[in-house]
Amino acid sequence: MDCHTMKSNNNTIKLDYGQGCLELLAGEEVEVVLPRELPPAGPEEVRRSLEQAVGRRLEDFAGARSASILVSDITRPAPSHLMLPPLVRRMRELNITDLSVVFALGTHRRMSPAEEEYLLRECIRLPHSQHDPKACISLGFTERGTPVEILESVASSDLIVATGNIEYHYYAGYSGGAKAILPGVSSEPSVVRNHELMRDPAATTGNLKSPVRQDMEEAARIADLDFILNTVLNSRKEIVLSTAGDYIKAHRIGAAAVDRMYRCPVERADIVVSCAGGRPKDINLFQAQKALDNAKNAALPGGSIILLAECSEGLGHPVFERWACEATSAEQCWERFGIEYEFGGHKAAFLAKESLEHHLILVSSMPRDKVEMCFMNPARTLEEALSQAWKRQGRDARMLVMPYGNLTLAVGK
Q: What is the pTM of this model?
């Protein structure tokens, strides 16, 4: 079951934008890139995955005195409230009773009590805490020189169980798995050193051999990550697969399901329209850039990519904005990234690099000068953007539309 393209047949294509949508009246020659999503798996899917765990089973740790359960923070779509009840129930059946939930914030902001309650729901009575990057202990180094420094309370547990969600990630290849350890419960120096590896050309979306992911997985081995429970969701946030067990083997099963739904082989086109998915996916350019990254391999060299993202909150990251502002040219910004790493600056560098290879147009509510500062051509409407693209590529230009640009990954045939 693969992602596919289809002719539009003169249909009006609705594209989410902010809290509304834009309409594209497409002729027959326009191809639409659509996922083939798996159906929801049903309420027993998490329990099933625990019973059919891959590589490692919870039973292998029966009687462990203490356990840390790592869960995602509020910025991630992982359905912790659905994963925790069957997981906790099974651990207690195995006499693993000293349980502690740790929110794997990485370097994200701390959450409010209301956000904690929203994520845990019926499990809110479990002992729980948020990661503190300053309370880490050193366990060694990866082969790439990343210090493995993780939260002391997690490192001292008999059992470490990581939960999470698996989807495409633009430099770690995929989310989920070992990411709960690094960056989830790691120190800032660990996170920075690991994230510096995104400068490697192999650090790309959907690549399991991304050096960032391989480094994360080595850190998880050193930290002794015992077991994972991960889900794969469709665009309606329904669980289509749950996978549990060894942090490599179980993760790969989930990554394959993501590919089955969202990896889309396409014939490259002159013009590609990619939709960031509406609010909250397009609340700022920092978030919406993912839909541009997913679309880049659908466009011919020198082709036009139109990104639809309202960006009601602007760029979304102060370092991103500073790097874009300080850049004298796209070439200079990309070269700076090669010699200097600062999280947030990478977004400016990636946009700079993409602007050297494709003609980028952003349909947004951002001021024109801010868009141009980010190496993109501004457009207030989709019609204006298409006019720009056709003027550059010709009226007979072939066009691809990615209504789920935030989810689907275009790969050239």
A: 0.90
